[in-house]
Amino acid sequence: MEKANWSSPVAEFIILGLSAYPRLEKMFFVLILMMYLVILLGNGVLILVTILDSRLHTPMYFFLGNLSFLDICYTTSSIPLVLDGFLTPRKTISFSACAVQMFLSFAMAGTECVLLGMMAFDRYVAICNPLRYPVVMSKAAYVPMAVSSWAIGGTASAVHTSLTIQLPFCGNVINHLVCEILAILKLACTDISINVISMGVTNVIFLGVPVLFISISYVFIIATILRIPSAEGMKKAFSTCSAHFTVVVIFYGTLLFMYRKPKSKDSLGADKEDLSDKLIPLFYGVVIPMLNPIIYSLRNKDVKAAVRNLMAHKCFTQ
């Protein structure tokens, strides 16, 4: 069915969310609220210990602190509004608030893609060139690397958001949980070729290039580890990059699943697909930020020790 050939200024958008599944709304409200609190607690503690513990003032933990701050920003830009939408019968958001949400979510996702690539380079230098690590990954190097990740993600998001909000829209009903750029583009009444082309270029920059860079880095990392003569040395080397590798697999694996899954043709399958199209990005936006601090601290003795010291210091001061 073709879109109606009319448009009018949009003051607000109506977000459908899971309104067709009222029972799911109640269940997901409780579940997502609990997960959001875990995200704030886990990532907040990780940021705190990387700042307060001098032993964690290294490039790896600096990047990790940035990743935790990014995850808090990413979830806070959307989850409170999603939770509010689960409770209110009329789920509306102003045009300006929708634009801000689009910008923040896209900027945080793009920044994380670049940041994971930077972290892969850090692990590559640490394992493949350990003697040069203090020189290559000096503060004068890793701070600009992190700043550039934020700058690249923010710039790309500003471009896409500005291109999107200038479009004329044929309606204001968003069939999604949040103001997501791809969902907004479906409402456009005009040709969106420029948006599609720019989105394709962005996918290459934020998905293709980092994945290629990370893959090449891990080829060299694995080759170096396999040449280590002692089993203990190999185990130690693997442990230094296993957390990052796990996060990369989950992060990019979810993205690939989101954009590569086949489309259903029958109506029942389409309904299920419509639900999955909303829940999979929710998994991407909530579960991954919740898992990141757990993965990075579960087998990390330095982080565990820093948390224990922080708790002991807090108890002592009280």
From TrEMBL:
Name recorded for this polypeptide: Olfactory receptor
Family per record: Belongs to the G-protein coupled receptor 1 family.
Q: Which UniProt keywords apply?
A: Cell membrane, G-protein coupled receptor, Membrane, Olfaction, Receptor, Sensory transduction, Transducer, Transmembrane, Transmembrane helix
Taxonomic classification: Eukaryota, Metazoa, Chordata, Craniata, Vertebrata
Membrane topology value: Multi-pass membrane protein
Q: What does the UniProt entry say about where the protein is found? A: Cell membrane
Q: Name one GO molecular function term.
A: olfactory receptor activity
Q: Which residues cross the membrane?
A: 28-49, 61-83, 95-121, 141-165, 204-226, 238-259, 279-298
- CDD domains membership: 7tmA_OR13-like
Briefly state the protein's biological role: Odorant receptor. Putative odorant or sperm cell receptor.
Domain (G-protein coupled receptors family 1 profile) ranges: 42-296
Cross-referenced InterPro entries, in alphabetical order? GPCR_Rhodpsn, GPCR_Rhodpsn_7TM, Olfact_rcpt
Q: Which GO terms describe its cellular component?
A: nucleoplasm; plasma membrane
> Superkingdom, according to UniProt?
Eukaryota
